[in-house]
Amino acid sequence: MVWIPGGNCTIGSELPGYPEESPLRTVSVDGFWMDEHPVTVAEFREFILDTGYTTVASRAPDPAAFPGVDRSRLVPGSLVFNKTKGPVDLKAALQRPTLPWWSYVAGAEWRRPEGPGSHVGNRAQHPVVHVAWEDVCAYADWAGKAIPTEAEWEFAARGGLEGAMFTWGDDMNPDGRIMAKTWQGEFPWKNAAPDGWERTAPVGSFPPNGFGLFDMAGNVWEWTTDYYAPDHASNEMEHACCAPANPRVESVERSYDPADMRADRMPRRVIKGGSHLCAPNYCLRFRPAARQPQMEDSSMSHIGFRCVIRE
User: Fold this and answer.
1) Beta strand segments in the chain, E
2) What CATH number does residue 119 fall under?
3) Beta-carbon contacts of residue 75 (< 8 Å; ≥ 6 apart)
4) Gap between the Cα atoms of 211 and 295, Å rounded
5) Fewer beta carbons below 10 Å: N end or C end of the chain?
6) β-pairing, 268-272 with 308-310?
7) pLDDT tens-digit profile of 119-135?
8) CA 156 – CA 289 distance, rounded (Å)
């Protein structure tokens, strides 16, 4: 773990097209320890072997939670990304109830990231994926750690560079160098993957930030404790270093398909950092200020986590 000194930090951005990152807010964060890199497959395997824990993706969905859905479809699995065969009209795709590059794959979970037939045999040092909120909390409890708040995460990601666009500065590719595991090409169909990894990469494959933390940009999105609100102001982040805001979610009946990416029927947490799927032509979210909602009971092939210890 790496010691992150406390202090004040301006979080968020006013980048056009990303209203959820505004307004700019100044927060105070106490010093804390943070994992040097996202939790890896090898580290998560140790937790599973020690506890016998079964992840959310490995359990069949509860029929009571999905009224109206054919029970034959309620099988263990998770959401997996796959490239499209050719260019996609991104604006039109975002108006659809499901995105064409995501699918619910039966049998997909942390040991089989792309579903049956895939494995993590050569990915021991890659970030673990397909972990839902319950899973990351269970791991953190076992490890004697905690999940960071959004303010803690962003403070750490900035590495002391106040107001910088990226974790390393304002130039996306200084001297032509690729600084993070992101999509290199035209999303969602053409990815040059110059590092040889089309999906996740081994942790630490790219330079650390100013605090010595790896993969605070790209590779995998990371869970935080904060409940999602559409902007910083409504998320009551003045005290986000200490506790997440209360959920602002109406009590409504859940009646969606597990493959429905646009469903919004339960509390959502903030995820940070972007992933290997982020590309400037679609998702310029491999930045400290970037934030996105994630339903607590959902896991995906590009979401992982890291932990903190507060003194």
Assistant:
1) 2-4, 7-11, 25-29, 32-34, 77-81, 102-106, 185-186, 190-191, 221-227, 268-272, 291-295, 303-304, 308-310
2) 3.90.1580.10
3) 60, 61, 106, 107
4) 30
5) C
6) unpaired
7) 999 999 999 999 999 99
8) 11
Question: ω into residue 288 within 30 of 0, thus cis?
Answer: no
End-to-end CA distance of the chain: 13
Distance CA 269, CA 146 (A): 15
Q: How far apart are CA 39 and CA 203, in angstroms?
A: 9
**pLDDT the model gives residue 225:** 95
Rounded to 10 degrees, what is the CA torsion of 114, 116, 117, 121?
A: 70
* Positive/negative CA dihedral, 264, 137, 205, 287: positive
Structural domain containing residue 195: 1-311
Share of the chain above pLDDT 90, in %: 74
Q: Within a 10 A sphere around the Cβ of 52, how many other Cβ atoms? A: 7
* Cβ neighbourhood burial of 243 (10 Å; 0-12, 13-18, 19+): exposed
At residue 51, what are phi and psi to the nearest 5 degrees?
-110, -20
Say whether pLDDT at 245 is over 80.
Answer: no
Total tally of structural domains belonging to the chain: 1
pTM given for the model: 0.89
DSSP state of 300: B
- 209 HSE (CA, 13 A, CB side): 34
Residues 266 and 297 sit within 8 Å (Cβ to Cβ):
yes
Q: Are 200 and 129 in contact (CB under 8 A)?
A: yes
Which residue(s) pair with 254 in the sheet? none
Residue 137 and residue 178 in contact, taking contact as beta carbons nearer than 8 Å:
no
